[in-house]
What we know:
- Strands 9, 12, 13, 14, 15, 16, 17, 18, 19 and 20 form a ten-stranded antiparallel sheet that branches.
- The protein has two domains: about 35-110, Peptidoglycan hydrolase domains (Immunoglobulin-like); about 115-285, Glucose Permease (Domain IIA) (Distorted Sandwich), CATH 2.70.70.
- It is α+β, with helices and mostly antiparallel strands.
- About 20% of the residues lie in helices and about 35% in strands.
Amino acid sequence: MPIRSIRRSSLSRLAIGLALWVVTLLGAVPANAQGYIARTLNVPVPGGVAAVPLGAADRAPSASYQGRRVMVIRDSDKQWIALVGIPLGTKPGRQTLQVQGGPEAAFQVRAKEYAAQHITLKNRRQVTPDPDDLKRIERELALQTDAYRSYRDGVVPSNVLLDRPVGGRLSSPFGLRRFFNGEERNPHSGLDFAVPAGTPVKAPAAGRVVLVGDYFFNGKTVFVDHGQGFISMFCHLSAIDVKVGDEVARGAVVGKVGATGRATGPHLHWNVSLNDARVDPAIFIGAAKRP
């Protein structure tokens, strides 16, 4: 083979090698270039959160998932991201967001298994409610469903990285399959803190109180809307220190720990909801176990 051909062949191999190196390098950039919020909150499992990149437009795009608006905020890298709550019943695999004025945005849901918990209750009505109880439960469920579906358009949450509402030990984690007196009921939709009765419960971020009440299962309860479908719910309280319409600052006391409703002892149950999907609060306080 002529020397010139050998040189061209070597140069071609070098060019291909460089191209492959560049492709490999660029393929690694998205993971390393994610903003802080995406790196911190992206736990795309059933009952978790997907941080979906939406680009760097001048204005926030509007996006929805399963027919519900999702939170869109700007991350530390100046990119817009959608923070999507993934319902517990979601099957692993590809999911899509509908983005107004643009193409769909896709993300993958990974599998996760949750443990089981068996609880014995002395009050059998809290396991198998009577007809009057069921009517009450239905009315209360409608009120709470409306609160979870609150969406204040244009309101940017003060912070999506939350403070713990109380100190103390985390007890029952999110997602447990629950059996009351041997009968399976809905999975555990929040995070429990083992703390004494009377412990002040503090808002984990600023927001507006959208619902308070004393309910069959939840006992004394407070809902705080942090903005864009990002909701905190605190229940089993012994006292409520706020009213509907109150604007609460981060760290403001909203109530006190108790054992009202279906509870076996004093503790705080804290739900976090995104786009009407109950998700693991531990994600937002840096306490989640990643799959």
